[in-house]
Amino acid sequence: MHSPCLKEVTQVCTHGCCFNPLFSLPEFTHTTIMKTTTSTASICRKNFSTTTTSSFFPNILFTDHESLPSFKESLSTFTQTYPKYSDTTRVDRIRGQEYHHLSLSNRICLDYIGIGLFSHLQLQTTLQSPSSSDQNSNFPFFCTIYKSVNLKSQLLHGGEGSEFESSIRTRIMKFLNVSSDDYSMVFTSNKSSAFKIVSESYPWETSKKLLTVFDHKSEAVDTMITSSEKRGAKVMSAEFKWPRMRIHSARLRKMIERKRNKKKNRGLFVFPLQSRTTGASYSYQWMSMAQENGWHVLLDACALGPKDMDSLGLSLIKPDFLICSFYKVFGENPTGFGCLFVKKSIVSILEESCVGIAALVPAENSSFHSDEEDQMKVFESSNEIMINNEKNVEYRGLDHVDTLGLIQISTRTRCLINWLINALTKLQHPNTETKTPLVQIYGPRVRFDRGPALAFNVYDWKGEKVEPALVQKLSDRNNISVSQGVLHQIWFADKYAEDKERVMMGGSVKKTKGVQEIAVVTVAINFLANFEDVYRLWAFVARFLDADYVEKERWRYTALNQKTIEV
User: How far is C-alpha 500 from the chain's CA centre?
Assistant: First the structure.
């Protein structure tokens, strides 16, 4: 992984107060530059947090959903507080031109993190092309099919596959800033399949341990754990401190640094740089520490921001495995596929196991050109996706993200998620004696370097949790898509013993095999989100300040037999 965007990485300051020492101070030594960068970045982070908490509704609590400031008033304050947000207006233009369905449908998509290969305009153009025999003939462009090959053989002898697959692989590796000199890549049907392939191929007999760092339950990680245990792995997991869900550093460091036989690898360290549930960000140093102590490292990049792979840290720390996933079209059809990258230098240690590898095949009657196997077809129209039969597929979804770059995307999502957090903490039930907050946030609150995901629960005026499933159903009725998640591996310090007892008595925490879990509502701010999206979510959550709101909606839900569509 190389880093052509080093300049962008060192300039990601929302207020514009950070300069780029690598370019402004060429006479400085590397050490001086790093110290200056660290000092400046710290000031920026502190200023950002202070500005966020002091500029929006200072010393004001909202106890009635009808008393919220208007959208226009809130937007004005928002843009004044975050002047750099106006630099991201290009996102609004792209959203309006290429993803107009997000506005026309009046549906807010805050239920998944990810990038689409294609834009919605490409979908519409394809459906309206003269070559279409019916409305669905040219979409979903391609499908995934199972390949009966094992990972090691595929990496050593599988080649690049069809020209269609090779085109997608090349574009994705360029997008992720991953070098084909260092890594090989295979497609999988989804993220869980990628994790299972690694667990079935990893040499657990010689590298016994599996150490995971996830503050939430993940189907993909659970699949890996189950498969690895069956093959003899000893599983360990990091713990997270209540209530901010920070890594329990002392315990994780102890697990990483335990004595080992220097002739053998310790095992596999599975690590995300950001939590896709709480938005907590973790240091690159954990991967570096693991590598220094003989661990192989698997980086779960599925929750990273669209251009986070361009960051300097990942150009220096090359994980042995990297997993990510892509959708076909964001906000329209969330189906997609997974990508598994394996460092070429470790392919020889893998074991042969036939599970989960997929091939991407153009759908029947799709717009992609077909060779002698009739897997690709030419798309001929004024708005072609292919150019003069060269199999040069246009990936507008990825192109848009590349055009925007790291600064614009991170600035936009940072402003939106921190405004939302601050706004949610201003909601309080109208009971002056108990002063019961409406929302409990889990994980980091207002922070410059937090991720764009948020985990929270809604509580009624009696302090009882409104079940996340009900919140999700009611949000769906308001055309807002949110998700549910489960926090786990929670560590309560002694000073939080009373808090632990309270949430357990309230049914918020349950124990499964000794592991404490909390069901939560989760939202994710994607790169196409705008201020109206977060404002509407805030206004929806504020409806729970009405003591009768849940009961009113409960009988309406039962009467209408509303169903939640899982994404």
Answer: 28
Q: How many CB atoms lie within 10 A of CB 35?
A: 13
Helix (H) or strand (E) holding 488: none
Walk along the chain (567 residues) and give the pLDDT tens digit of each residue.
Answer: 544 443 333 334 434 344 332 233 333 344 443 454 456 667 777 788 888 888 788 888 999 999 999 999 999 999 999 999 999 999 999 999 999 888 877 889 998 787 889 998 887 776 665 554 444 444 557 888 888 888 988 898 877 778 888 989 999 999 998 999 999 999 999 999 999 999 999 999 999 999 999 999 999 999 999 999 999 999 999 999 998 999 999 999 999 998 766 667 789 999 999 999 999 999 999 999 999 999 999 999 988 877 777 765 666 789 999 999 998 888 766 678 999 999 999 999 999 876 779 998 887 655 554 443 333 333 223 233 332 733 567 899 999 999 999 899 999 999 999 999 999 999 999 876 777 899 999 999 999 889 999 999 999 988 899 999 999 999 999 999 999 999 999 998 876 766 666 556 544 555 444 447 899 999 999 999 999 999 999 999 999 999 999 888 877 766 665 554 343
301: amino acid identity, one letter: A
CA 177 to chain centre: 17
Assign a CATH topology to domain 142-367+392-399: Aspartate Aminotransferase; domain 2 (3.40.640)
Residues of the chain with CATH 3.40.640.10: 142-367+392-399
Handedness of CA 556, 558, 562, 564 (dihedral sign): positive
Of 311, 299, 330, 327, which Cα lies nearest the Cα of 110?
330
DSSP characters over 40-65: HHHHHHHHHHHHHHHHSSTT--B-SG
Distance CA 472, CA 6 (A): 40
For domain 49-109+405-560, give the CATH number.
3.90.1150.10
d(CA 255, CA 293): 10
| Burial of 53 from C-beta contacts in 10 A (0-12 / 13-18 / 19+) | middle
